[in-house]
Amino acid sequence: MIRADNLARQRANIYRWFACMLFQELSVTDIASLNSPELQQLLRGLKSIPELRLSTDLFRNKIKALINRPDNHLELAADYAELFLMPPPTGVSPYAGHYPHSSPAEERLLMSQWLKHVKQQTGNNEAADHLAVQLAVMALLIESHHDQPSDFISQHEYLRDRLLSWLPGLVKLCVLAHMPRYDVVTDVHYTMALSP
User: DSSP 3-state assignment of 103?
Assistant: First the structure.
C-alpha cells in the first residue's frame, strides 16, 4: 500500500515535471533526463491510473523515439517554438487569459492571489497565468497540504477553477497543431487532472 505522503510526493513531482516540460524549450540535459529512472518511475505511476494507461504508453513511445533521434534537441526546440511562441493560429497560447472563459488581466490577478497563498512569485518575468506556473502551484499545494480532507478539496477546487476551465481548449489546439511531441504531453496532463 502506498502511504499518503509518498503518493502526495509522487503527484507533486508529476505536476512539477509537467511544469518544467511546458515552461521552456528542453535542453540537451533535459532531454537526456527523459530516460532517467526517476522519470520512468513517475511514468509507471501515471500508467497505474487506468484512465492514463493509453496516453502514458503513447508518451513513453514518443520519448523513446525522440531519444534515439540524432538532432532531438533541435527538433524539440523547433516544435516548442512553433507551438508555444508563435501567435495563433499557428501557435497555441499557454496562457489561461487567452481562452474564452476569462481575460488576461483577470487570470493574472487570480493566479497572483494563488501565488501569494503558496508564498511564491513568478520568475523570469513570466505571467502568472502561464500553464507552467499554474502546474507548479498545484505541485506546491499538494506538497504543503496533503493529509486533511480539506486539503484535497482545496486541490480539487484549484484544478477545477484554475486549470480545467481552460485546459480542454489548449489540448484541442495542440492536437490540431499536429505537434505530436507536445499534444501527448498536454493530453496526459489533462487526463491526469480529470482523475486526481
Answer: coil
Residues 77 and 55: their CA atoms lie apart, in Å, by 22
Instruction: Tell me the C-alpha to C-alpha distance, in Å, between residue 68 and each of 54, 64, 96, 109, 111.
Output: 22, 6, 34, 43, 38
Nearest of 156, 187, 192 to residue 171 by alpha carbon: 187
Grid coordinates in use for 173? 489546439
CA 187 – CA 5 distance, rounded (Å): 26
C-alpha–C-alpha distance, residues 95 and 101, integer Å:
12
**What domains does the chain contain, in order, with CATH numbers?**
4-194 (1.10.3480.10)
Give the angle 27-22-166 at the CA atoms, nearest 5°: 170
Kindly report each contact of residues 120-125 with a partner whose C-beta sits within 8 Å and lies 24 or more positions away, as own/partner: none
For cell 527538433, what's the residue?
75
pTM above 0.85, yes or no: no
What pLDDT tens digit does each residue of the chain (196 aa) get?
A: 456 677 778 888 888 888 888 888 888 888 888 888 988 888 888 788 788 888 888 888 888 888 888 888 888 888 888 888 998 888 889 888 888 877 778 877 877 777 777 777 666 677 888 888 889 888 988 888 666 767 788 888 888 888 888 888 888 888 888 776 676 677 776 677 666 5
